Amino acid sequence: MLDMLNKIVANPKRFKNYIAGELRDAQDGSVIERESPAHGAVVSIYPQSSTSDVEAAIEAARQSFDAGEWAFRYGGERATLLSTVAQMIRENVEELALIETLETSKPLTVSSGEILFAASLWDYAAGAARTLHGDSHNNLGPQMMAMILREPIGVVGIIAPWNFPLLILSERLPFALAAGCSVVVKPSEFTSGTSLKLGEYLKAAGLPAGVCNILAGYGDPVGQAILDSDKVDMVAFTGSTGVGRRAIAASAGNIKKLSLELGGKSPSVVFADCDMNAAVDGVLKAANVNMGECCIAGSRLLVEESIADAFNQRLAERLKDLKVGDPFDPASRIGAIINQRQFDQIKSYVAVGIHEGASLVCGGDLTGYEGLFFPPTILADVRPEMRIAQEEIFGPVLTVMTFKDRDEAIKLANSTDYGLAAYIWTNDISNALFCSRHIQAGRVWINSALDGFPELPLGGFKRSGNGRETGRYGIEEYTELKTVHMHMGLQSERWVTDV
Ligand code: NDP
């Protein structure tokens, strides 16, 4: 393993933008160097795109969409191309997983699983390209019929975050392409590698030039130019609520459609009648997967008062077995935090929580941890108005509150501005169903955590965002409806009387 790392450090991977069908460096030759958060060495070098690069990408997308070659192409042909890319992702799973683990520090096995799931999203979108269709009405009277055409929305900008680089992009890009859109993608400055590899695959698979453009660079100017451009018809943004608000402001220019997946503060609601072992495991998984850097992280535990002490103790005991360390060590479940800023944010939230009166059940203490490694942390005695109960920490920190009955559990679950996900642990199915109807969240898991399927939609309520990705609803987001009214035979009535 050390050998492999030394080789990569001596010769970091270099990536190119994919613009107008060509693999290119930034026009001015600038680059971004990405260090592995776990190893502190440069592992990837991306183009640092400038305004002229992003303008070229947007123009290429606009021209390709207006030319209509992809938008009007038979869905079966679009499907074949998307399936080819799915296959390429599978064939390159080792390389892609290596890139993601080096850039994000998620354990290698986790990266491989995510890459394979990403491939299945491309497969699903391929199927959707064939089956996407409009509607018709023949109940409008003897001489009227109507067709509802489902058309691609146009040029789509996709701005992606660093936490699940290929996976989050694959929840969006193949769906936009399946619908017939042209696309400009800006991955995160921290994790652009696998997104830029997709450019190579799309080119090799024969996508017409300009239909998909992928370029690395900073949020400002590259992401901001996509938000501001009148040539872009829709933006799919995933990331912080702050930049989501910028997207909303910028969309006023040309009344862009927006699909936003923003922050979360999702509850794990644990009732006393749950299967304790399964719930403990599920709560820890929901809180700590991807180092807690996960928009649907179950970062708030709401546990029924009668079992709270025993449950917290079990959580703390199980955490002792969770290995924090080198993501290439097969035993590691938790790697390093993505960057220094995120690490400092997590550390300061723990301090804020203790200052607000929370008590530390475990973790929090950085003694024995080097660099950007942060131990899973549990804070109990949390009250709903505390900042650590309201704000997204985006790290391996679980806040614990208790409830006396179901009404209180639901009230607490709904007591934040967010509404992305919820996890319910109970053996009473009626209780679980009642909670899933009353908790405000885009996704609810009952007695499980984080399972995902390309068939199912995802997205948020309240300030967690707008729109849905994946599944049938996901592809429909990238379309417009056009109603065609058709009159049969001669019109019998005139608006202006015949002479
Ligand atoms: P950001 O919202 O800044 O980043 C998400 C994407 O937006 C990145 O590609 C980023 O570019 C881009 N971006 C940044 N500024 C602009 C802009 N002005 N116009 C257009 N695009 C822009 O998130 P951070 O990385 O700063 O993380 C901060 C917090 O956001 C986290 O602590 C977490 O709370 C939340 N977050 C939520 C995610 C989710 O899945 N919902 C994912 C990531 C973060 P670049 O990074 O390349 O500069």
Can you tag this structure with a few keywords?
Aldehyde Dehydrogenase, Chain A, domain 2, Aldehyde Dehydrogenase, Chain A, domain 1, six-stranded mixed β-sheet, single chain, 499 residues, binds NADPH dihydro-nicotinamide-adenine-dinucleotide phosphate, 2 domains, seven-stranded mixed β-sheet, alpha/beta, 17 helices
Description of the molecule:
Helix content is 39%, strand content 20%. It is built from 17 helices and 23 strands. It has helices at 2-10, 51-67, 75-91, 93-104, 108-131, 165-170, 173-179, 193-205, 219-228, 241-251, 276-288, 308-319, 340-356, 387-390, 406-413, 429-438, 471-476; strands at residues 13-14, 17-19, 22-24, 31-35, 42-47, 135-137, 144-152, 155-159, 182-186, 212-214, 234-238, 257-261, 267-270, 300-304, 359-362, 377-380, 397-403, 418-419, 421-425, 443-446, 461-462, 465-466, 479-487. The model has no long low-confidence stretch (mean pLDDT 97). The strands form six sheets. Strands 15-16-17-14-13-19-20 form a seven-stranded mixed sheet, sandwiched between helices. It is α/β, with parallel strands linked by helices and 499 residues long. The chain starts with a helix and ends in a 12-residue tail after the last strand. It has two domains: 2-262 and 464-483, Aldehyde Dehydrogenase, Chain A, domain 1, CATH 3.40.605; 267-446, Aldehyde Dehydrogenase, Chain A, domain 2 (3-Layer(aba) Sandwich), CATH 3.40.309.10. The chain is globular, with a radius of gyration of 24 Å. A hairpin with a 2-residue loop joins β2 and β3 (22-24). It binds NADPH dihydro-nicotinamide-adenine-dinucleotide phosphate. NADPH dihydro-nicotinamide-adenine-dinucleotide phosphate (NDP) binds next to α9, α10 and α13. Pfam families: Aldedh. The active site is at residue 261. Residues 27-484 form the Aldehyde dehydrogenase domain.
